[in-house]
UniProtKB/TrEMBL annotation:
Region of interest (Disordered), residue spans: 157-198
SUPFAM superfamilies noted in UniProt: F-box domain
Protein name (database record): F-box domain-containing protein
Domain of life: Eukaryota
Domain F-box: 1-44
Taxonomic classification: Eukaryota, Fungi, Fungi incertae sedis, Mucoromycota, Mucoromycotina
Amino acid sequence: MLQDLPLEILTQIAEFIPVEDAGEFARACHKCYFAILPHIWHQLTLNNTVELNMLAKRLQSNNLWAQRAIRFVRDVSLGSDDQINQPKFSSTLAASMFGIASTPDEQAAEEAEENKRVTRRERIGVFGKKLLNMFPHLSNLVVDFTEAARDFYSGGSGGAPISSATSATETEGPAEDTVSAEQPKENGEEEDVDDNARLPFSGSVSLVNYKSDHSKFMHYLLAPFRRTHHLKLEALPVVSLCDDIDESILTNADLQNLATLGLTHLRKLELSYLDSDFRLQTMQNLLESMPHLNELELEWIFPPSKDDFARLCQVIQESSHLYPTQTNKKASVYKVHFARKQDGDD
C-alpha cells in the first residue's frame, strides 16, 4: 500500500503524476498529500491579478494550510498557460486541492463579484509587494506582456499600456490609458507605493510576449525588480516568416530604455529577438549599465552578417569581457551564448 512506502519514494513518484490526477493522488493517504505538496505549489500560474487577490483571501482564511502551502512556492507566472507556454498548476487548482477554496460554481461567482469590484488596473509596485509578502521564497517571476497590459496601470509615469480590450498581437500602437491618473485609493494600499522603488527581489524575472517599441511601459513593469540577477526579455514569438514580424524585433529604443533601468545587480541577460542592424553604441551603453554581467544570450530571427557579428563580439568583449561560447540554429532562430573565459581557455 502507498502509506507503507517511505515519503522519499512517494515524493519521487509524485514527480510523474499528471496534473489531472494530482488531486486524486493527494487524497490517497496522508503521506501522498505531503509528497505531492511541493510539486503542486512549486509553480503557480495566475491568470490575472484578480486571481492573486482571491488566492490571498483563501489562504488568509486558514493559517495552517497557508503556512504549509506557501513555503513551497518558488515560481509564479502571470498569464495563462497557453500564453506563457509552460505547463503549471493554476492557483485555483492548488487551492482547491487543499480545502481552502470554494466549489467551482462558488469560485466563478466569487471571481465575477471580484471583477465587478475592481474598476481600475493595479499598480505594478502593489502587485510585486503583495506577491513577495505572500510568497517570501519566490525565486522566479514570469510576466506575460499582454496580460500585464490588461492588469497594470502606470499612473501616467510609465507610458500608456496596450488597450486592455485589444491583445498585443492585434494592436498597432500604444493606446491611450483609459484610466485617469487621479483614482481613489483602496484601503490606503497604494498611498505610499512608489513604482520606481526597488523591491527586495533578486531572483529571475522574465517578460515574455513583449510587443516591441513599448519601451516606456516595459520600463515601468521592470522598474520595481531592478535588484534581479537574471532578466529575460522575449518579444512576441514568430509563427511564420511570412507574417509581419516588426512587433517581434527588439528596437534600439527598447535597448536604450533597458539601459536606463540601472540593473547593476544583473548577472545574466537574455534578449529575444534582436534587430540585425541595431546600433553597436546602444549595445555598449546597455552592457556598461550592467557591471556584474557574467552571461549574455542573444537571439535573432535574421542573424547579422559575419562582419557585423564580429564587430558585435568586439563590443561585448570590450564592454563586459564576455566571449561567444555556444551557437545554436533552430528553425528560424539564431542564438548565441556569451560568457566569461574560464582559466585555461584559449
